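[09:14] KT: can someone run the structure on this one? pasting the chain below
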Amino acid sequence: METHADEPDSRKRPVAGVGRIIGWPGGSLWFGRHLAPIQEHAHHAIQISLAMEGSFRIQADGWPAARETRGMVVMPDRRHRFDGCGASVAMLFVEPNSARGAALRKRFAGFDVALLPDAEAREAVRYLHARYIAAAPDELMAQFAQGAVCRIAGNPAMAPSEDPRVTAALAWMHARLATPIRLEEVAVAVHLSPGRFRHLFVAQTGTSLRAWLLWARMARAVEYAFQGRSWTEAAHEAGFADAAHLTRTCRRMFGVAPTMLVPSKLTGSAPAEAD
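[09:31] RB: done, structure tokens below
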């Protein structure tokens, strides 16, 4: 087993989870076995967690105690604590501005954290779990992950319409995450004044440009690291100043240091087990 100098040796460092991460435009899938509780955190994306085996605990900000469940949906920027309880879990992160994200926001309007009925959670993750057991390739896993999101979101076609200028701005920024991005530059790229663009962006995404950029860069860095880059390389290629900046952001957004997330290949186990 080989590791980069700045990457974790799972035998020596605390590990929060072991598995795989797969991204696609508008979302990502984090799946595997969760080995330790994750402290309170918040992130811009909508989070869907589905237990493939066992159950987990979730505690929203303001809840008196954690609740055990097989499925839940966390709305953007809502603080919460997560304890995987050693279960195999599929975590789906969805950009709120995407069609599926808008459909999720419509269905779960008024909730910070919504617990799904066990039957719905089992049905949503059933096909994804089967591919997980079969160690399916990333492309197939991404396809079934997006299918699980659609099952929970309902019909994305019924979601509120997107503003094409914000959609174009998101694509423009995704292609330039490794470089500094200023609001004024994005506004010019989509032919809007900075003030008008700021208003439209917040109205469409529900967050500031700075918060969105941190989320997008964090997701990109983790995806790169799980593809084999060192955490330092991943930090630079995702637009962070250095690995320390990446670590601070990861702790704030996900409640763990990036080195506590270990690709299944580093453990010497088959991807199907992620253990």
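[09:33] KT: thanks! Residues 226 and 263 are 6 Å apart (CA to CA).
[09:34] RB: yep, looked fine to me
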